[in-house]
Amino acid sequence: MHNEAGNVKMLAGEIVRAMRKWGRRYEVVVVDDGSDDETWVRLKRVAKKDKRWTVVSLRKRFGQTAALAAGFARAKGELVVSMDGDLQNDASDIGKLVAKIEEGYDVVSGWRRERKGSWWKRRLPSVVANWVIAKISGVELHDFGCTLKVYRREVLDEVALYGEMHRLIPAMAAAVGAKVAEVEVVDRKRRYGVSKYGMGRTGRVILDVVTLKYLLDYSTRPIHLFGGMGLLMFGVGGGGFLWLVWERVVRLSPLSDRPVFLVTIFLMLVGIQLVTIGLLAEIMMRVYYEAGKKPTYFVREEVGGAASS
User: Fold this and answer.
1) Gap between the Cα atoms of 126 and 143, Å rounded
2) What pairs with residue 149 in β-bridges?
3) Do the Cβ atoms of 39 and 5 come closer than 8 Å?
4) What are the CA-CA distances from residue 125 to residues 197, 200, 212 (Å)?
5) Which residue, 163, 197, 218, sits at the end of a domain?
6) Same-domain pairing of 269 and 212
7) Stated pTM of the model
8) Measured in Å, how far apart are the chain's first and last C-alpha atoms?
9) DSSP single-letter state for residue 308
């Protein structure tokens, strides 16, 4: 939550009613992302009345990704549900998502088919961003931006959150072998507070997706990306350079008035630089994995032998 003081009481009542009707044990972790209104004061009141609630106040506004990471770190359940505190998510939809994950999935994402809000400011940027993320990541979800999701604990343990990568958690989870599905959920109009989203986020989403693509496909082999581009540019530049040599030596054509001469030299130099960057990135990644003893694989389950000892 961020500056959602008007929503605290209604959110608490809605969650309690939904979980009582559902009949399962649960806990609630609420992260106040640096609010400067009465959100934190009202959250503390709720936590004092209901011991199942844990409320956390961040020192300043760190953003939704950091706030989710703080909540995930404190959640103790085998299944972890995330949702916004602006009441646009409906707590009664949690049961549908959990029922879907119990069919054998690892991540289930909400799909706001009928989105509320302005077409130009919210719906159009969302359509563009979701299409780009789906095409680049290979995870066919309609609504990556919906915060209402349910995760298995072991999947979250394999995912590190930085920057504004929270909307890409399903893609990151799929990269480590998680099974991802989606369920239609309700999207309601905001009652209190102000939306924190706008057209500007589309560009940030695209940059995040580019980062994700690199991390998923080339983090363990950066030389293949940078070296491949470098060899291509060096090859094009080298081919052009040989052609210019032919022109000068055989046909005795002057080269001083040909811009292509500078272009070929530029391409060859950039090609060498890209290969060098790839080698440096390769060394850095080897240090990262070997010094931290980080595996380059993820295990779903292990039975027998050393696993049972």
Assistant:
1) 8
2) 82, 109
3) yes
4) 10, 9, 19
5) 218
6) no
7) 0.74
8) 44
9) G
